[in-house]
């Protein structure tokens, strides 16, 4: 374990994942046809070469995705003191019916809690909710935070016909704010489907697109106006939105249908948190300028190949001030958790 400098906050990676093969095996046993349909959709969205490459990658990194010991060893090598561990996004199961979704999210929350409990001084857990069934999400959030002691939940950018602007999610946003729980926005899949089925565009273009679309739904629908206490973290630096926010501001000024939020969209960047998985020091500096250094958190997307292999070195090499760097590496994350509601 790395030793923080005297008075410095722990270096905290807020974007790391757990794969739960037993959970997926049971889902497949219960609904094999649904799992096959989901696999067919992934093939259409990603293309066979990308799925084959991802399969090899996950096989090589399987210990880091499942073993606490391998996780801690990798954290030590990276100079990371603490990780926030969330489900691998393939465990969202956005197509699951109510019964299966209730069971699967509860089981995911249990397994995440058991994993982080093996190293409670170094690991923090984030659970999940069945986003496609809005009437179930508050109970799932309560299960994660109050039942399992997790710091919050991870959600996708959409689930079936449910967008994040859906009015049926209002009780969820209200409850998340009340519990001061982290809501970690991490897309899985992209609705552009076959247009991104080569060159790994499903990830390189699809993930930033989904982040931008989901955040835009939240901003333009006024969700952040109604729930100012929401602790929303966007993976992958928020995707394309922070660097293209001027176009959103223009629409807010000139288009009546884009005037559902109280203020210009760019002002909401300082009400959202963003991780550092942007792969470009210039993009990180722009994110700090656009959202504020206090709204940026160290992330790695551990242990996937599209993450940051050396997340701490990436931040330190971005040319930021010492104070901004210290906050991003751990101070901002510590402040987010300082007043959270505990089970």
TrEMBL record:
Question: Which domain of life does this protein belong to?
Answer: Bacteria
Report the residue ranges that make up the Amidohydrolase-related domain in this protein.
Answer: 13-338
Cite the SUPFAM superfamilies for this sequence: Metallo-dependent hydrolases (SSF51556)
Asked if Hydrolase is a keyword of the record, the answer is yes
Q: Which GO terms describe its molecular function?
A: carboxy-lyase activity; hydrolase activity
Give the record's GO CC terms.
Answer: cytoplasm
- Pfam family, any one: Amidohydro_2
Q: Which InterPro entries match?
A: ACMSD, Amidohydro-rel, Metal_Hydrolase
| UniProt xrefs under Gene3D superfamilies | Metal-dependent hydrolases
Q: Which PANTHER family match?
A: 2-AMINO-3-CARBOXYLMUCONATE-6-SEMIALDEHYDE DECARBOXYLASE (PTHR21240), ISO-OROTATE DECARBOXYLASE (EUROFUNG) (PTHR21240:SF28)
Protein known as? Amidohydrolase
Q: Give the organism the record lists.
A: Microbacterium testaceum
């Amino acid at each position: 374990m790395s030793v923080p400098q005297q008075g410095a906050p722990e270096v905290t990676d807020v974007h790391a994942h757990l794969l739960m093969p037993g959970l997926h095996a049971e889902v497949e046993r219960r609904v094999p046809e649904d799992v096959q349909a989901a696999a067919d959709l992934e093939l259409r969205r990603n293309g066979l070469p990308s799925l084959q490459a991802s399969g090899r990658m996950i096989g090589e990194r399987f210990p880091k995705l499942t073993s606490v010991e391998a996780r801690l060893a990798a954290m030590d090598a990276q100079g990371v003191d603490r990780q926030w561990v969330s489900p691998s996004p393939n465990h969202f199961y956005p197509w699951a019916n109510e019964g299966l979704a209730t069971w699967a999210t509860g089981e995911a929350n249990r397994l995440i809690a058991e994993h982080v409990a093996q190293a409670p001084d170094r690991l923090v857990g984030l659970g999940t909710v069945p986003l496609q069934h809005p009437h179930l999400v508050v109970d799932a959030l309560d299960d994660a935070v109050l039942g399992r002691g997790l710091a919050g939940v991870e959600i996708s950018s959409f689930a079936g016909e449910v967008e994040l602007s859906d009015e049926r999610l209002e009780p969820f946003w209200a409850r998340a704010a009340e519990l001061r729980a982290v809501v970690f926005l991490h897309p899985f899949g992209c609705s552009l489907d076959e247009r991104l089925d080569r060159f790994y565009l499903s990830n390189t273009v699809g993930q930033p697109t989904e982040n931008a679309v989901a955040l835009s739904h939240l901003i333009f629908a006024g969700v952040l106006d109604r729930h100012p206490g929401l602790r929303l973290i966007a993976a992958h630096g928020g995707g394309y939105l922070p660097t293209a926010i001027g176009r959103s501001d223009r629409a807010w000024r000139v288009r009546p249908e884009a005037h559902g939020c109280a203020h210009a969209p760019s002002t909401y960047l300082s009400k959202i948190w963003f991780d550092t998985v942007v792969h470009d020091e210039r993009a990180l500096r722009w994110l700090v300028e656009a959202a504020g250094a206090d709204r940026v958190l160290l992330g790695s997307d551990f242990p996937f190949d599209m993450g940051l292999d050396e997340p701490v070195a990436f931040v330190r090499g971005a040319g930021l001030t010492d104070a901004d760097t210290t906050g991003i590496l751990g101070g901002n994350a510590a402040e987010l958790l300082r007043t959270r509601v505990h089970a």
